[in-house]
Specification:
six-stranded parallel sheet, Dehydroquinate synthase-like, alpha domain, 14 helices, binds glycine, about 45% helix, 10 strands, globular, Rossmann fold
Length: about 350
């Protein structure tokens, strides 16, 4: 069972210090996985607060998706073997979703599974990627093709790390937060929309904690993603396809969270038409999305390229493209087949 240290009035790193000084970690050796950004901006803060990490060995990997490579995982296994790391070893993953995916994968596989601690440093990591035990590597550029479910021993959410991030990274995380509140909490959805519409990207730690708690509760019900956890994919069938399509020549590359945010717009559009979602939810969300990013304009030809990716989505069934839609805020419907002409229509209505 994962212990989640949520932001509160008492420092999260202080609480992590107390947990790691306890009996459960008596015989542990710690290896810290960082990238060049978290090495400079976050590692000194972490080490200054957590005594047991003073002596940790650290391993630096490339920043971003580049680190989610079998060759990098293999280097990490070799480093652990060369250091005689045993099954009491703990990997501490300090970074965004790519670091927690890689570090979780290595922890799941080394000696058939060792403990790991996720310390997310991005907003998307704090509210989504670091929570829930999904780990993954990419194969020849194809995202998340191999992986394990391996729950972290601890997730420690320290919101002061957000001060090191550019606005674009905060915006990515905000879209995932909007998604989680759409499925899990109406008043937080409305209040986050108001904050964004007022022009502020300054988030209350309590809002981040609430979002992380919603995801944690969903994962607890369905840790291996066999049913109810699919609701977390709201906006993602479109989002993954838009992210892949945005790498085509002539397109503007979209970060994951932003692609999901645009995917949410298509999803809400379809939800109004197919499930009777209140149109004011779509209107409100559109205003928020326009405040955060410039919405792309897709041609009919572009929609064919996007549909080609959507046809490959892991959640499709019986040859149909399946989406999660909403009949109301907090009322998601999973595995809904959506005809391709309706998907095309939603994509053409983005802007
Ligand atoms: N990011 C979706 C999930 O963890 O299930």
């Amino acid at each position: 069972m994962t212990r989640t240290i949520l932001p509160s009035r008492i420092s999260s790193l202080g609480r992590l210090n107390r947990v790691l000084s306890g009996k459960t970690f008596d015989n542990s050796r710690f290896f810290l996985i960082v990238d060049e950004n978290t090495y400079s901006h976050c590692l000194p803060i972490l080490i200054s607060h957590v005594d047991r990490l003073h002596q940790a060995e650290f391993i630096e990997v490339p920043a971003g998706e580049e680190c989610k490579d079998p060759a990098i995982a293999s280097q990490l296994w070799q480093t652990l073997l060369d250091s005689n790391a045993d099954r009491d070893t703990v990997l501490v993953n300090l970074g965004g979703g790519c670091i927690t995916d890689l570090g979780g994968f290595v922890a799941a596989s080394y000696k058939r599974g060792i403990r790991h601690i996720n310390i997310p440093t991005t907003l998307i990591g704090m509210v989504d990627a670091a929570i829930g035990g999904k780990t993954a590597l990419n194969i020849n550029g194809s995202k998340n093709q191999v992986g394990f479910f391996h729950q972290p021993a601890i997730v420690c959410i320290e919101t002061s790390f957000l001060h090191t991030l550019p606005d674009a990274e905060i915006i990515n995380g905000l879209f995932e937060m909007l998604k989680t509140f759409l499925i899990g909490n109406r008043s937080h959805f409305q209040s986050l929309c108001q904050t964004i519409l007022s022009g502020s990207l300054d988030l209350q730690p309590g809002m981040i904690a609430a979002c992380a708690e919603i995801k944690t509760a969903i994962v607890k019900q369905d840790p291996r993603d066999l049913g109810i956890r699919h609701i977390l994919n709201l906006g993602h069938t479109f989002g993954h396809a838009l992210e892949s399509f945005s790498r085509h020549p002539g397109q503007t590359p979209l970060a994951h969270g932003t692609a999901v945010g645009i995917g949410l717009l298509c999803t809400l559009y379809l939800s109004v038409r197919k499930l009777g979602l209140d149109p004011s939810v779509l209107q409100n969300y559109r205003a928020v999305a326009e405040k955060l990013v410039t919405l792309p304009h897709y041609t009919l030809r572009d929609t064919e390229g996007i549909l080609a990716y959507m046809r490959q989505d892991k959640k499709n069934s019986g040859g149909d493209i399946c989406c999660v839609l909403l009949s109301d805020i907090t009322a998601p419907v999973i595995n809904l087949p959506v005809p391709e002409n309706e998907i095309r229509d939603a994509l053409l209505k983005i802007s």
